[in-house]
Amino acid sequence: MQVKLDLTPERVIFMLQQALSKEKEEWNPSLYKTHTLESEDVTAEERDGIVQWLAELNYQLRLTPETFFLSVAILDTFFGLVKVKPKYLKCIAISCLFLAMKICEEDEVVLMAEDLIEVSRCGIKVADLVRMERIIVSKLLWDLKKVTALDFLQVFHAFLMFMCPGLLIGQYATGSGGLLCLLTRKLQVCLANHRILQFKASTVALSLISLELEGSLPDWFAITVALQTFAEVEKMEIIRCRELLTQILTPHYCHDHFVTIRQSQAAKCKMEQADVEEIYDSIKRLYGDEGMFFMGAAREQ
């Protein structure tokens, strides 16, 4: 799901509702065991390693972020359905990437199976790739269009463009598109850590935006609460997810706008102590009814 530039507020609301509905139908927390000598299944470390390999391959082939996120979603779903031996990891991963390419990329971008195998150096044959594709498609009942954290990130970003476009553009030298690119890169880093799979994709995307806005906008908390309420994300889930994302991202980034651990702890206290009525008053001020959802927010900013 790619967000177009000519969206209306009503269309953004519809897209979010569709994504939330699909997430509710298909989401299950993915749990991976840590490495043990007795384990014959794919471990958390092996899963994270293969996701990092997919990220590097996706970049090397100049594929879209959508392809990478979908390939990992297919991978995690498949691992949740089938016990996999580590020796088949690359075969499964490259097959998931190949399937995602066919869904997300233009036809002229999709490589032939032989070329993909050669470029990736995954050490399998075309027949192995074709066979694994069939297995994955069969196990997933042909439902490959998974909703991802990137889908929610793009929709929430579109929300922000209606709510406070001037403030966002003023905070990022490359404009609002620069914010989305920055958040996408951070989300890719997070995806290579199995611990985020305990949270829904919508929670991860919203928490990441909340962290970024905390270092950029004075009204970040009201915006977070508004998005949280409309997306039906639990407050405590956002708090827990924000803490985890801070742990994951702090070693990777020193961006001026990114929240520190101390700021995250302060934000946790603020969210825990906030008065419920006050929160809903701020939502009403930001949104009004759905027809004036974003216009009122833009005026107040």
- Average pLDDT level: 79
Sheet with most strands: none
H and E string: HHHHHHHHHHHHHHH
Give the termini separation.
Answer: 29 Å
Low-pLDDT stretches are 254-301
* Class from helix and strand fractions: mainly alpha
The domain count comes to 2
The count of strands amounts to 0
Q: What is the CA-atom radius of gyration, in angstroms?
A: 20 Å
Approximately how much helix is present in the residues?
Answer: 55-70%
Percent strand: under 5%
Instruction: Tell the overall outline.
Output: globular
Can you count the helices?
15
Domain Cyclin-like: 52-138
Organism: Limulus polyphemus
Protein name: Cyclin-I-like
Keywords: Cyclin
Report on this structure.
The protein contains 15 helices and no strands. Mean pLDDT is 79; it is low at 254-301. Helix 1 (9-26) packs antiparallel against helix 7 (149-163), helix 2 crosses helix 4 and helix 3 packs across helix 4 (89-104). The chain has helices at residues 9-26, 44-60, 65-81, 89-104, 113-120, 126-139, 149-163, 165-171, 176-191, 201-214, 220-230, 235-249, 261-273, 276-287, 295-300. Belongs to the cyclin family. Residues 52-138 form the Cyclin-like domain. InterPro entries: Cyclin, Cyclin-like_dom, Cyclin-like_sf, Cyclin_N. This is Cyclin-I-like.
